[in-house]
Amino acid sequence: MMNKVVIDGHHLSIEDVVNVARHGYLVELSEDAKAKVEKARALVDKFVQEERIEYGITTGFGKFAEVVISKDDAKRLQRNLIVSHATAVGNELDAEIVRGIMLLRANALSKGYSGIRLSTLNTLIEMLNKGVVPVVYEKGSLGASGDLAPLSHMVLVMIGEGEAYYNGERMSGAEALKRAGIEPVELVEKEGLALINGTQVMTSIGALALYDAINLAKASDIIAAMTVEALRGITDAYYHRVHEVRPQIGQMKCARNMLRLLEGSSLTSRQGEIRVQDAYTLRCIPQIHGASKDAIEYVKKVVEIEINSATDNPLIFEDEMRVISGGNFHGQPMALAMDFLGIAVSEIANVSERRIERLVNYQLNDLPAFLTKKGGLNSGFMIAQYTAAALVSENKVLAHPASVDSIPSSANQEDHVSMGTIAARKARSIIYNASRVLGIEYLAAAQAIDFRGDFRLGNGTDAAYKLIREEVEHLDEDRIMYIDINRASKIVDSGMLVKRVEEAIGEIEN
Description:
- The protein contains 19 helices and nine strands.
- It is mostly helical and 510 residues long.
- The protein is elongated, with a radius of gyration of 26 Å.
């Protein structure tokens, strides 16, 4: 039996988004949602028959809201909306992001506030279930009035236009629908606007980025613990009372993680045994990682609300017989959250790179320079640290907030926009860079541990060490390093590292 996710506009989880977007789960509309969608559509049809002036139903869009459209031109209006708004440029969004967009748009429509026909919504779900993936370009959204441009590329395929992938092959949207056995849609009143006026592009990118950031935050604790062992770090700094007197939630979680990961280690030290205190990059791991954990938790709350929200305009309140123009399409909540996510993950990478420096710099430790026995003949981890430094420097540029910018559009009708989709894309790039930095630290920590001779690793770090040694052997002589970095980073960003360690010691707190 195929795995599936039932949507009703209220109960979608971040894990559901990941399962549909990445793992191909099928999507089904709940019976309650079907009834709500049909009731809202009935009200739209009633207003159309009465020729009432309602934004986006019998009027133009944006600054053209004052232009009344005749009943005869209503269908043409919806098609014109899609083809004129499909102006996105740049690289194609990954298939998983597009699948996430389709799921999130379907879930928002299933709430019954958008006025779309049930048959049109079912077409979108059928495309998702049969593997028709529209070609959607990444740039062109201002993040207010929704993600108009990129969402229009999704809808182009629904009407038999644009381009799509089917069974991994790129083709016209019409051909993709034909091969999948799906009839193209002829949009009617309100439907074009219902499909494109929402925050689903920034939210799809953001939800997947958030999921990866949670994994990365857990992995950073594991890898940092290995570095603590490699540098004979002092565990007293993680003592619970230190953190209880400054009860920041993420900080306390990280301190608990560190002690559990390092429990049983023969490599760690106590205060005064080797040195009185460690450098900040070791001593302050709970404070630094913990602050990022708290930021990620805030972002999680925002994303969980957004994936179950009606974010288009106007909204149909069938029970009150009202159509109201509002601003739920404005991406400001997601924009701020995505900027915050990018900053939080940048800091995880920043401190990881500083730990790498402490591992490779013989002036800061008692290990061979650059973690190689024959320095000079071999460069060891010298240039791997360069790569980490380059990545964190790039992250500093990417972490500049997008949400503080706004450019008016639509003849100043839309005079403040969020840039939330740019913020989400930047956060995703930062997460990619951070996973590579952590991959380099993972390799360097394992290499340094190897120089310690007889030792017993902690209950959690032992599982992490064994995992990396299954994929990458100790560096005796210089070899092509990018291969090792890619392998280590894949272990990190795939979730394999967290899974292996959690099998050994239980859940890592985030």
